[in-house]
Amino acid sequence: MKPGAMDRARVWPDFRDAWIVHEDADIVLIDKPAGVSSQASDAERPDDIVTRLKRFLTARGSNEYLGVHQRLDRDTSGLLVFARRREANGSLAAQFEGRTVAKTYVACVTGWRKGPDKVTLRDWLTPGDDGRVRVASRRGGAAKEAVTQVRVLSRRGDRAMLELSLDTGRTHQARAQLAHAGAPIAGDGLYGGSPAPRLMLHARQLSFEHPGTRRPVRFEAAVPADLEVWLAKGAADAAIYDDESALTRAIERAVERRWGLGHSADAATTVFRLVNEEGDGLPRLAVDVYGDWLVAQFYGDDGPWADSKRRERVLDRLHAIGFEGVYLKVRPKQANVIVDPHRADLAPSLPVRGLAAPAELEVVEEGLRLLARLGDGLSTGLFLDQRSNRRRVREMAGGLRVANLFSYTCAFSVAAALGGAASTVSVDASVNALERGRANFEHAGLLEKGSNTLVADDAFRWLGRAARRGDAFDLIVVDPPSYSTTRQGRFVAQDDYAALAASAILLLAPGGRLLACTNHRGISWSRFRRMLFDACRSAKREVAQIKDLQPQQDFPVAAGSEAHMKSALVTLTG
């Protein structure tokens, strides 16, 4: 591969021809893959199937009009039909509203009842406040009737593949009804489904009257191989790495999920997560995009990685995507094990596939230009799960006094300075990390602008001195490692986070805010909130709000799991 050959439009095209099931002058039907939204989830970065199909048809010189009549959840695959002319749109609209369109799905579940192979589920559904739909105890109020005909297609132990004919079209109808029946769809974290590489729900058939010919038509999208494989084998950790086809499908699905980030025409973001472990159906594997390069992170050398052939198979498949090169990082099995981050066997300085990146690689994150080093040990200089938080800091930093603890390479501080902060203080025990932070400030043209101070010190010791001086800040960012050791002592987030947060809260001015973060896998969301409330009580400061901040979409989690990164914005009273 020659330098500069990376083609983002090839990796993330507007649309793929293989998705089209049928098209004529009146309608177009597509087989939407799992991971592609039916409607835009981010107005600033529309990645929905309608936007992509319009761009595709327009590029071919076709009329870009599309009449939309149905939705599928992002992680549900299968048939969608669109009207291509306004005249056809009216006919389809009348059929969907009159419930004369026959819709058949296939779902893979655990716990389906023994007994007859055909049953009817009849429930009353009502929306909840948490995004879930619930089965109401009785009709009335906001509850709407949902009727689903269920037929067993095949069984394998406790697993079953079901055919679902939806007589009604309620939001989350199949997902909610099956969960209520004790057989949640595999991969459905919202409704308690068992582990699976994706939501195991597929819209297989659509039957309706063709709006042009007025004749009955039926279209079908084949059941994806992922559903057949899960039914046969379940979700064994290593299985996907021994199956070339399954591995390829999982990586392709992850690539499609990141279309909105990867396709960015103005390159506003060139650094993000491409694969996030079990959340993308690839246990103990994370892959990050850094401009035209990939960084593959393997967690541990046991489990799926006990066989080195699996790792090599993954690296080959990642390189085939089309990036300039692939770097390797092998993470220790236990996060609290201190290892030399520059060991060649854990983090080779050169890519293991393809071409080398510049030693100092410029990447762009929501328009924020930062420097990364892909071949300098286990860390690149940037934690990608903080992108939305850095944007948040940039948006609210105007005129504020900002302190950034455990600042590492000062990305939060640079974001605050670009957002117009009156001053920033970046505190980290590592002189080398702060030198890289200084380089980030220089690269952004900010070192000589305003008051941006870099302090090499233990965070706890600095907090104590700042309190004795009477320093006050309007915004403090606390993002410590899960474990760290300095000359002053050892920090363990599970034990010491509340005390750290209390010390930071003492320095907040009235109405000040604390952006508190932890990626400790052993700290749950509920425990993290308790830590923050305890910290406020310990500091004797009154809280106006503690707001949970949602994880980024490029860091999905497995069914029933919590995100590793927990973030909350603590706001004190004025």
Detailed description of the structure:
With 574 residues, the chain is α+β, with helices and mostly antiparallel strands. It has three domains: 8-233, Pseudouridine synthase (2-Layer Sandwich), CATH 3.30.2350; 239-361, 2-Layer Sandwich (Transcription Regulator spoIIAA); 383-572, Rossmann fold (3-Layer(aba) Sandwich), CATH 3.40.50. The chain is built from 14 helices and 27 strands. Strands 1, 2, 3, 4, 5, 6, 7, 8, 9, 10 and 11 form an eleven-stranded mixed sheet that branches. A seven-stranded mixed sheet has the order 21-20-19-22-25-27-26, sandwiched between helices. A hairpin with an 8-residue loop joins strand 3 and strand 4 (77-83). The longest helix has 15 residues, at 525-539. The radius of gyration is 26 Å and the shape is globular. 44% of the residues are buried. The mean pLDDT is 91.
Would you kindly provide a brief summary of this structure?
With 574 residues, this protein is an alpha+beta fold.
Topology overview:
Layout lengths: L7 H4 L8 E4 L3 E6 L16 H11 L7 E2 L8 E7 L2 H12 L4 E9 L7 E10 L5 E3 L8 E13 L2 E8 L6 H8 L20 E9 L6 E5 L4 H9 L10 H14 L1 H4 L8 E6 L8 E6 L2 E7 L8 H13 L4 E7 L21 E2 L6 E5 L2 E5 L14 H10 L4 E5 L5 H8 L4 E6 L2 H13 L7 E6 L2 H11 L3 E6 L4 E4 L2 E4 H13 L2 E11 L6 H15 L3 E7 L16 E7 L2
Parallel strand pairs: 4-10, 14-15, 19-20, 19-22, 20-21, 22-25
Antiparallel strand pairs: 1-2, 2-4, 3-4, 5-9, 5-10, 6-7, 6-8, 8-9, 10-11, 12-13, 13-14, 15-16, 17-18, 23-24, 25-27, 26-27
Helix pairs in contact: 6-8, 9-10, 13-14
